[in-house]
Amino acid sequence: MTWEVLSIIGTVAFAVSGAIVAMEEEYDILGVYILGIVTAFGGGAIRNLLIGVPVSALWEQGLYFQIALFSITLVFVFPQFLMKHWNRWGNFTDAIGLSAFAIQGALYAAKMEHPLSAVVVAAVLTGSGGGIVRDMLARRKPLVLRAEIYAAWAIIGGFAIGLGWARSSFELYTLFVFITLFRIFSYTFHWKLPSRSIYNEKSHFEQ
Amino acid sequence: MTWEVLSIIGTVAFAVSGAIVAMEEEYDILGVYILGIVTAFGGGAIRNLLIGVPVSALWEQGLYFQIALFSITLVFVFPQFLMKHWNRWGNFTDAIGLSAFAIQGALYAAKMEHPLSAVVVAAVLTGSGGGIVRDMLARRKPLVLRAEIYAAWAIIGGFAIGLGWARSSFELYTLFVFITLFRIFSYTFHWKLPSRSIYNEKSHFEQ
Amino acid sequence: MTWEVLSIIGTVAFAVSGAIVAMEEEYDILGVYILGIVTAFGGGAIRNLLIGVPVSALWEQGLYFQIALFSITLVFVFPQFLMKHWNRWGNFTDAIGLSAFAIQGALYAAKMEHPLSAVVVAAVLTGSGGGIVRDMLARRKPLVLRAEIYAAWAIIGGFAIGLGWARSSFELYTLFVFITLFRIFSYTFHWKLPSRSIYNEKSHFEQ
């Protein structure tokens, strides 16, 4: 039950983020719906393909689908209202979605007795795959590969579940709070993963 | 039989549109063939993956494959000849393809007893998925998400079939004529779906 | 055994090329790993989906996965060291990967008794699909569709296997040497496939 509520929060956050990107790119109303739906369900769909969940599972999420469509409609009809609150609540609900989806994706793969690598990939794809597809459809560089730490928390969740550290309900909720909090810390304090420019390194070296 | 003729017209139109985009982007001859094939078959391939059609179905379309390869060859060898006629016939044949493919995609999903959402998604993907992959491979913003109404007609076709409004041969042909005509009206009269720029809205609101 | 060594060389070359593109685009360390992994395994994953190999096959490549992760780590930690040697060895090892992967992809599809078109597509996707996904994630125009002849050698390999010209071990090794050599010739002597700009043609024609 609790996981369902968290999944619903995440679905809304992902759908809204897709709709906003589409509006920023001046896509038409259909583009807004498509990017919203793709962001909310694309990560799970790619995960299902890669770990071999029967595709019919995708089409049994009727309730989530309707909630996503409803959220996107709200964004399109009342964009001003949303934008006032999105800066404060958008990142927060998105963190809940990242965390809830990563944990559920990892549990899916673990239940199918896939090896650790598959569990970790399932966690990353479910948590951040939708955002990557969204950015590619909007012709942007995928945000999760460059900005404040995002997908890395999903990876840690995947390891925690794949290695069997988190199994009981209590452990999974603790993991959920951990991932959500650290994602919130990441954008609040601008935590970034190290990056390395090949060219700077080279020039530095050749001096 | 009639559907096969319509599918062949659509396959040619899609393959040619992919080849033209590749030549506009100065891809080499192989890129021209790849974009042509991807545009003609990509939408159906993604649909098959998402609704669970066995993939072998993709490889039984030998005739369509050869027709697509032949069309692309003609485009590459006689581009001047084609361009004279493409402005007049290109959009027309593409409308036939959109319509025929959307209806067949929806019928596929309906036959598998998927819910309405899957039927609609199958219609959209089969009708316009190839064009989206084409634009992404050419690093363009997907046209169908921004320009004159396109994928929306596929969605309406999906609803008509998913809700059981169109079942008999006669109803399906009527639906086909309807989608084709309205797509032609869309580009002839520049019908666009509403779009909403977040920034304009905001500035408008904050004045 | 020999094929395994060649596959390992190819996996390293592909993973390193993905990591380098990510560093050129200033992605963070996670982006470097993701692009490396996607380049090394993305082509095979798409092929598996399209020809119907059970997805579990993807997760049984533990050794290759670890080798890829190790190579990417080396690139990220010692970029200067790598860049000194990459120009000489990068294209060479990449040619081995293209050739080994194309042949194995074609053999997979042939073993499943798919028609010729599927064998050729499997060869192309396994050999160059990862590079295409890499370029799209980095928001670049796919290199293999424009630069020195690349995927075309994979296509020739696909035909050789699909038509039954190369069956015995000896024939397959000969094919491997042929594809590798011709890829090396292609970038050494700047062999390009013909391309045709629609606009130049047109202006030429209308003069």
What key attributes describe this structure?
207 residues; homotrimer; disordered C terminus; mainly alpha
Mean pLDDT of chain A: 84
In terms of DSSP E residues, the strand content of chain A is under 5%
Assembly type of the shown chains?
homotrimer
| SSE series of chain A | HHHHHHHH
Structural class of chain A: mainly alpha
Domain Glycine transporter (chains A, B, C): 5-78, 92-161
Keywords (chains A, B, C): Cell membrane, Membrane, Transmembrane, Transmembrane helix
Family (chains A, B, C): Belongs to the UPF0126 family.
Organism (chains A, B, C): Metabacillus flavus
How would you describe what is shown here?
Three copies of one chain form a homotrimer. Chain A has 207 residues and is mostly helical. Chain A has one domain (2-195). Chain A is 76% helix and 0% strand. Chain A has helices at residues 2-24, 29-51, 62-77, 79-111, 116-137, 151-162, 169-188, 198-206. The longest helix of chain A is centred in the middle third of the chain and has 33 residues, at 79-111. Chain A is globular. Chain A starts with a helix and ends with a helix. The model of chain A is unreliable at 201-207 (pLDDT under 50). Chains B and C meet through helix 1, helix 2, helix 3 and helix 4 of B and helix 2, helix 5, helix 6 and helix 8 of C.
